[in-house]
Amino acid sequence: MKKPVLLIVMACFFFNLKHPFAQESNTYSTSSETTQSAKVSLKSGNMPRAGKYKTWDIGLHGGLCIPNTDITSNDLSAGSFGNEIGYGLNLTKFLSHSFAFQGQFFRGKISGDEESGSNGVFNFETEIDYSLSLHALYQLGNVSFLKRNPNLAIYGYAGAGIMRFNPRVFRDGSSSSSNWYVQEGRRDSTMDYSNSTEIVYPIGVGVKYRIAKPLSLTIEYSLRLTNTDKLDGWYRLLSERDNFSYVNLGISYHLGRKEKPIEWVNPMQSIYADLYDMKDRVDMLSGDADKDGVADIFDREPDTPEGVKVYGDGTSVDTDGDGVPDWKDVEPFSPKGAQVDASGRELDADGDGIPDSRDIEPNTPKGTLVNSQGVTIPTGPATQRGGASSILAANGYLPSIFFDINSAVIDKKYDETLANIALVMKSNPDVKFEVIGNCDSRASSDYNIKLGKRRAEAVKNHLVKKYNIDASRLSITSLGKNDPITKDHPMNRRVDFKVAE
Q1: pLDDT given at position 403
Q2: Does domain 2-16+52-271 have CATH number 2.40.160.20?
């Protein structure tokens, strides 16, 4: 029985020495673990080693001794209970989260009665002066897949030591005792067995429960095997060894200045931390909070609105390079270097509808009709001699209105532009304009002619209904896709104004 147990213990011992908790050569991405089961903190560092934890325990225990001897009947009445008590002290050194060496000091008493022999009925009481033993201990239960920090563990141990004991044999209930070795069916021996010292082999199992950071409770059963038949002072034929059991309750205190005892560290925590760290890294590489198609780790603008077009670095597309992203830019195709306001609209100091970047006369009076370069178009008596042809000759110009693909709905961002157009028309009541609808090339000619007409009508209706412009001053024309000004589709989806003849 002893050899298989010792082989199992030694196998566990060598396994733990090979894989104690974390090898020095391994690296890991966590260096701090919280003591609360609900939290895990992951930082870059090394795997935790035994030196980071409390590895020493000291414990007290006490309980009941049950003999397995030739004289085995026990009297557990209140009067004799004191003859069955044991107590002791443990000092434990953990080499890993599960393997430890334990030194134990033990004292106690065992007793038995009602054994008949040729010389009468015998009882015995044995005082165990001391037992000193060294155990190899293996603890289970701190390996948990459900709890990061378990508080319940099962352990087992086996070891060897010495035990000094002093048995006394009582005959026929007499209070007088003998230290002579008694043999069944024979006369008393002349051998004095008092103060005997023998080898003892403790084997035990127990349950440990953590009640506080430094304290744990234990309940344990151990079997104390000996190589002697002297424990009860009685020799029975064919029986050569006396043993006894020890059932006890104990409390242990974790020594040291470290925060956590190693025996309550779940080795699965390292695996959990590894998985969390890998998940964080994957999330960091693949996470895309703004859903723009650029991972957050590479995204220079991680909070762009959903659906906004971005460059490879996650910054919003800015087609004209004016510093205002297209999704905010009311004029996304302003000339390079042009000064714009916060909405991306080119600055127009005199409000004539011609941006300052193209305005030759940037200080024309408000409401003045100008050409495409911002030059004033003469109106009134001087131009009436030539009629509308003279105005055409002056290249009359008003800003264009742009549309989304396949749409004839005016974007609200052009309200200010249309207000300026209305102001120019009211300042020049004798001038009529042609409203010309245009489209990009992505449809048939017939469809684009109709779409261009709807766009021109939308602009005319806006000016008539909102600014009370006389409808007779605005004529509708659609060029469809026949008058592109660039290869860029957005610039061709527009409505232009032209002074009518």
Answers
A1: 94
A2: yes
